[in-house]
Amino acid sequence: MRLLALLLLLFSPALMAVVETYHFDDDEKRDRYQTFVEELRCPKCQNQNLAGSNSPIAKDLRRELHRLLEEGRDDEQVVEYMVSRYGEFVLYRPRFNPETAVLWLAPMIFLALGLALVAMVFRRQKKPAGAATETLNDNEKKALNDILKDQDVGDTNG
Amino acid sequence: MQRLKLFLPLITFAAIAIFFYTMVSRIDQGEYNPQDLPSALINKPFPSFSLAKLEDLTVSLQQKDLLGNITLVNVWATWCPSCHVEHGYLNYLFSEKDMIIVGVNYKDKAPAAQRWLQTKGNPYRFNIFDPDGILGLDLGVTGAPETYVLDHRGFVRFRYQGPLNEMVWQDKFQALIEQLQQEQLAYNGRGSR
């Protein structure tokens, strides 16, 4: 039983995901590396980030990322390096430009549309309720009372 | 009007359903592949490199060796199953359609790759030997096979991911190659005047 647990630990997917380890001069670079492998997308396996992918291309990109950081490139240069080769696609948080504008603005547009719709529905609902009491003229009131009276009589009889 | 509003959710649902149905059928027919990535190199020059020639590892190849002709740059490797499938069609493109094809032997071992060319035929004008995938990285290669179309100036005009065959060629390459040939003719005409 203990052996099984050990085996399960050894072959857990979390451990299998990233096989290689990189040495960094300082902790700040290691942190940046961690952020990048979380936020850069593997170009081959589209719903995984670099950290979670076993594909050769993700491995290459991790190696390049390590190299770039060790060379002292800043974040902007690293992003530029990746985007110039694999396109905006590699960024899980794409930069704002005409191509990605729809991605960024669509949620806000939909939210605005939704709010407008809600506002419209509320205004519409209020109006008929108020209008109904006002438009009942004397004749109508009398008719209504008659109906109600009829019903009372009917109820007591029945 | 009021009646129509009741049907609004149904109409919205129908519109979304039609949209998804057309997407799925386009994927089925191979018109659209959600896995395809637009290459970041389109309309940019082929990246510079300096790598050995597979046929003779002492010879070094550069970016300038790709200039002057409309060229297909085909990324391949002996470990890639689709490349086996594709190779016959590359031979056909070379012998029957007179295409200039340059190979990028991607993350491969030289002896195995050389043997491959001997046994399966060699449609390539030459092969760039890229064992570490350095050029592949600069090209934005995500896997083999991939095929890039270069115009006579050495600019990347199109990238196709996956094995080539007659259907793909008719669909995605034919018209582009003709257009590039026109461009080259126009350019040469202007140069000689």
TrEMBL record, chain A:
Transmembrane segments: 101-122
Domain CcmH/CycL/Ccl2/NrfF N-terminal: 6-148
Keyword Transmembrane helix among record annotations: yes
Secretion signal, residue range per the UniProt entry: 1-17
Family annotation (CDD domains): CcmH_N
InterPro entries per the UniProt record, alphabetical: C-type_cytochrome_biogenesis (IPR051263), CcmH/CycL/Ccl2/NrfF_N (IPR005616), CcmH/CycL/NrfF/Ccl2_sf (IPR038297)
GO MF annotation list: metal ion binding
CC terms in the record's Gene Ontology section: plasma membrane
Coiled coil location: none
GO biological process: cytochrome complex assembly
Record keywords, A-Z: Cytochrome c-type biogenesis, Heme, Iron, Membrane, Metal-binding, Signal, Transmembrane, Transmembrane helix
Family assignment from sequence similarity: Belongs to the CcmH/CycL/Ccl2/NrfF family.
Function statement: Possible subunit of a heme lyase.
UniProt name for this protein: Cytochrome c-type biogenesis protein
TrEMBL record, chain B:
UniProt similarity note: Belongs to the thioredoxin family. DsbE subfamily.
CDD domains: TlpA_like_DsbE (cd03010)
PROSITE patterns, per the entry: THIOREDOXIN_1, THIOREDOXIN_2
Lineage of the organism: Bacteria, Pseudomonadati, Pseudomonadota, Gammaproteobacteria, Cellvibrionales
GO biological process: cytochrome complex assembly
Keywords assigned by UniProt, alphabetized: Cytochrome c-type biogenesis, Disulfide bond, Membrane, Redox-active center, Transmembrane, Transmembrane helix
Pfam families named in the record: Redoxin
GO terms under cellular component: outer membrane-bounded periplasmic space; plasma membrane
Chief location category: membrane
Transmembrane segments: 6-24
Positions of the Thioredoxin domain: 40-182
Official protein name in the record: Thiol:disulfide interchange protein DsbE
Record Gene3D superfamilies: Glutaredoxin
A Gene Ontology molecular function term of the record: disulfide oxidoreductase activity
